[in-house]
Amino acid sequence: MERNQLHRQVALMRKSLFDQWLLQGYLDDQFIQLEELQDDANPNFVEEVVTLFYKDSSRLLVNIDQALEKKPLDFTKLDGYMHQFKGSSSSIGAKKVKAECTQFHDYCRAGNAEG
Amino acid sequence: MEGATGNNGGKGEHSKQGDSVRKLTALVMDDPICQRVERALLMSLDVEAHGVDNAHDAFKLLSEGRSFDLIILCSILPGINGFMATRMLRAMGVQCKILGLCGLTVEQGRQAFLDAGADGYYEKPIKAAQLIPILKEIDPNYQPPNSRA
Prior knowledge:
CATH topology of chain A: Four Helix Bundle (Hemerythrin (Met), subunit A)
Keywords (chain A): Cytokinin signaling pathway, Cytoplasm, Kinase, Nucleus, Phosphoprotein, Transferase, Two-component regulatory system
GO biological process, one term (chain A): phosphorelay signal transduction system
Oligomer: heterodimer
Protein name (chain A): Histidine-containing phosphotransfer protein
Number of strands of chain B: 5
Shape of chain B: globular
Pfam family, one (chain A): Hpt
GO molecular function (chain A): histidine phosphotransfer kinase activity; protein histidine kinase binding
């Protein structure tokens, strides 16, 4: 049936994309763990978690942007957002995002020391 | 954001090796994304995992008489944070294993969490290899399921 074919094709495309990201260092082992958690009982697990992550990180990034506009900077709040962002990006295996968060966190700590 | 969530839709045994009389149960207290991943991991280890995204809902469940073999909680939660929640859980008389999770700087919070009454403190993402020994401590008869095909 056409629909199944399309579903299969989307699945193949998604797999290629994720394989690319794995190779390029955007994703790490944890992502493979997620794929292994997908099964008949949780057939769309990876897609659901990744979608949730995108939505949540958009929201977090807006919050972070807004927090960065405030003067003086509220490092505690920023730290909280970063903590959450790093937690969720680690959980899905978004290796690069996790690294950027750690960097941001380090900047915040340095900034806090100055401020 | 939702509060307490029930079982994962995949109810029923996966019939890996149904020797245990009763499945271990866990409560995960974390943001929706991490919760989803942690619960899926626990389910894959044959643990019945429930989730809430804040401490208040966890206390509510417990005061309604629910009990769990394991509680896993993030250090940062809306409202009461994980550290305080751990202290409150112990004060409430919760005696099961409690594990703290953090997204950043695991060393910083470790001692505080352990002093608050947690049995362990891990950096996210928590792994099966870290959970299995704890599950075995909780139930000496616990066996992790065979890996899926």
